[in-house]
Amino acid sequence: MFAFYILVLNIFQPVTGPQSATLIALIVALFYVLAGLWLGARFVVAGIVLAVLTVFGYFMLAAHFYLWMAVVGGGALMLAGLWLRRA
């Protein structure tokens, strides 16, 4: 995953801070969805929600993107973890 990230950053230069943060969050969301193919639909839902909220924040809340990602990236994944724990 780290090698993929480095390759994407080198191919699509210049990559700014918000673009890099969005890419990382979307990679995490992708792995949640892929894990959901084996572990259950809850992972798929968590990954899709994370991806949608990340893209929404990137395009619609550019001025507050880092604050948005702190809430979405941290808070939403903690809530998803609690949701997955109860399954």
Can you describe this structure?
The chain is an all-alpha fold. The protein has one domain (2-85). 85% of the residues lie in helices and 0% in strands. It is built from 4 helices and no strands. It has helices at residues 2-11, 17-39, 41-60, 65-85. Helix 2 (17-39) runs antiparallel to helix 3 (41-60) and helix 3 runs antiparallel to helix 4. The longest helix is centred in the N-terminal third of the chain and has 23 residues, at 17-39. It starts with a helix and ends with a helix. The mean pLDDT is 87.
Structure summary:
The protein has one domain. Helices cover 85% and strands 0% of the residues. The chain contains 4 helices and no strands.
How helix-rich are the residues, as a percent range? over 70%
Q: What structural class do helix, strand and pairing data support?
A: mainly alpha
> Radius of gyration, Cα only, in angstroms?
14 Å
Q: How are helices and strands ordered from N to C?
A: HHHH
The global form is globular
Return the domain count.
Answer: 1
What is the number of E strands?
0
Largest sheet: none
Distance between the termini: 27 Å
What low-confidence regions span 5 or more consecutive residues with pLDDT below 50? Answer: none
Taken as a percent bin, the fraction of beta residues is: under 5%
Q: Counting H and I runs of at least 4 residues, what is the number of helices?
A: 4
Summarize model confidence as the mean pLDDT.
Answer: 87
